[in-house]
Design goal:
The structure holds 2 protein chains of 2 kinds. Chain A is of the alpha+beta class. Chain A has a domain of 78 residues: hypothetical protein PF0899 fold (2-Layer Sandwich). In chain A, helix 1 packs across helix 2. Chain A starts with a helix and ends with a strand. Chain B has a single domain, classed as Rossmann fold. A 7-stranded parallel sheet of chain B has the order 4-3-5-2-6-7-8, sandwiched between helices. The longest helix of chain B is centred in the last third of the chain and has 19 residues. Chain B is globular, with a radius of gyration of 18 Å. The chains are: A alpha+beta, B alpha/beta. Chains A and B meet through helix 1, strand 5 and strand 6 of A and strand 1, helix 1, helix 5, helix 6 and helix 7 of B. Strand 6 of chain A pairs antiparallel with strand 1 of chain B. The structure holds guanosine-5'-diphosphate, magnesium ion (MG) and zinc ion. The site of magnesium ion has 4 residues of chain B, from helix 2.
Amino acid sequence: MHELAVTQSVLDIALRHAGEQNARRITDLYLVLGQWSSIVDDSVQFYWDIISAGTIAQGATLHFRRVPAELVCLDCGQVYQPTGEELICPQCAGTRLRLRQGDELQLEAIDIE
Amino acid sequence: MPQHIPVVENILSANDRLALENQAELDAAGVFAVNIMASPGAGKTSLIEHTVRGLAGKLRLGMINGDVATSLDADRAQAAGAVAIQINTGGDCHLDAVMVHSALLKLNLTEFDLLIIENVGNLICPASFKLGTHKSVLVASIPEGDDKPYKYPGMYRGVDAVVINKIDLLPYVPFRMDYFKQGIAALNPGVTQFELSCRTGEGLPAWLAWIQNQVQDYRNTRS
Ligand SMILES: Nc1nc2c(ncn2[C@@H]2O[C@H](COP(=O)(O)OP(=O)(O)O)[C@@H](O)[C@H]2O)c(=O)[nH]1
Ligand SMILES: [Mg+2]
Ligand SMILES: [Zn+2]
């Protein structure tokens, strides 16, 4: 739902890094999105096509790497990937959990010319 | 020649940095700030009205209200006795640090002990945008259903307290409190919780005491 703000930030960060390298063009962007980051790839792509127009990043390809959510049970240490409404440790039925990965919202790298 | 440039930046890092600046401004004036988040209709404004009335004469209270288009909520807080600033987000689903920053400029912060920020009604987006507040509170309500922690883990994970509002409706609405609380415990073990009703006033004293304690703790750590 806040993909516009996210896409704008992606563009800002990419343009800043490209500017530091005196790039003429940004051709590819590599994004890391956690499963629990609640960001929809298609919406980012939709906004990207609009807001990148007229910049050196126009037409660049967005690559999305999805990171699955991974929970650690604070009672027994079991690590598991929740599927749907499953907030109970599959090993000990413990209910105190910590998210170990899956909330990433990162620009990992860009390709420039 | 094509070149691969490692970036590794959090996409919302600019917002995070400005949030830190907001907090520094609040700290310079000694104002403790709370971000109140919830779905639309959960009772954020009702809770704020009770808080303003309940703390009248004890704490000087300011309020920032985020709303897509209207100033109705800010008007309600003002009527209850707070100094309220309205931010219209113009359709945005959340407040961000930039909007809060411009609202802070309109307030004379030295006039306040406690600043309450009512976020836009939404259970997804506000969790990603830090504002610079010292604590964040989620207001859940009985009619929303007991599955919300499971559906919106991001929101439940990051808050310092969960207020379960509208407990007056428990006799009329199917709501498994155990199941609901199990979801909260899983995502945010040990988080402070309040069960209350803004309708009947039941449970409000514990909430008011908590807020006052938070302000007191904040002052103690600073002096
Ligand atoms: N039954 C009941 N209704 C409530 C309670 N708290 C708020 N409401 C009602 O819920 C509606 C939405 O409340 P409001 O404070 O505007 O929610 P907000 O959108 O989160 O700011 C209003 O009609 C309130 O009167 C409560 O504890 N019990
Ligand atoms: Mg409201
Ligand atoms: Zn376990």
